[in-house]
Design goal:
Blueprint: E1 2-10, H1 15-27, E2 32-34, E3 37-40, E4 51-60, H2 64-77, E5 92-98, H3 119-128, H4 135-140, E6 145-149
Helix pairs in contact: 1-2
This protein binds 7-(2-hydroxyethyl)-8-mercaptoguanine.
7-(2-hydroxyethyl)-8-mercaptoguanine (GSY) binds next to strand 4 and strand 5.
């Protein structure tokens, strides 16, 4: 088993509910740890509501493709439709890291190609695994992020 990291984000409907529902599907009973929830400025240029984002560490033997299938199942169960590429969404799940593995396109690329550009990914990832994100990477990443609290204690 090795640690795998996935990013979850929501800015439509009830983000707390979508994140909780998505987590249950993505973790599938595997041991996991979850970062705090962050309110984050939307990245990608479209005017839309702020996101709620978190990162989860899952200890699993699942392959990158199996994790991608879990991510897609979580999005589908939360009513995600394929709209605008950078547009609003009920739930978006990205596979960030699968242990130390690298994999090839077209279906899934790990590490995630935009992992190190985005503060909404790096800040919660660093909370779980400080050794994976350097100060420099954090400084160079884009987007405002504000910690809200743990998923269970919000609202
Ligand atoms: O790539 C994930 C979906 N997404 C997000 C997101 O989760 N958070 C923020 N802050 N901006 C985003 N833009 C997109 S697309």
């Amino acid at each position: 088993m090795r640690p795998c990291y996935l990013s979850l984000g929501s800015n439509v409907g009830d983000p707390q509910q979508h994140l909780a529902s998505g987590l249950a599907i993505v973790c599938e009973g595997d041991v996991h740890r979850t970062s705090r929830v962050y309110e984050t400025d939307p990245v990608g240029g479209l005017a839309q509501d702020n996101f709620w984002n978190l990162v989860v560490e899952v200890l699993t033997d699942a392959t990158a493709h199996q994790l991608l299938a879990r991510a897609q199942a979580a999005e589908l169960a939360n009513g995600r439709t394929r709209g605008l590429r950078w547009g609003p969404r009920t739930l978006d799940v990205d596979v960030l890291l699968v242990g130390n593995e690298t994999s090839d396109p077209p279906e899934i690329l790990v590490p995630h190609p935009r992992l190190y550009e985005r503060a909404f990914v790096l800040v919660p990832l660093r909370e779980l695994a400080a050794d994976l994100v350097s100060e420099d990477q954090l400084r160079d990443s884009v987007g405002r992020v504000v910690a809200l609290g743990t998923l269970e204690t919000l609202r």
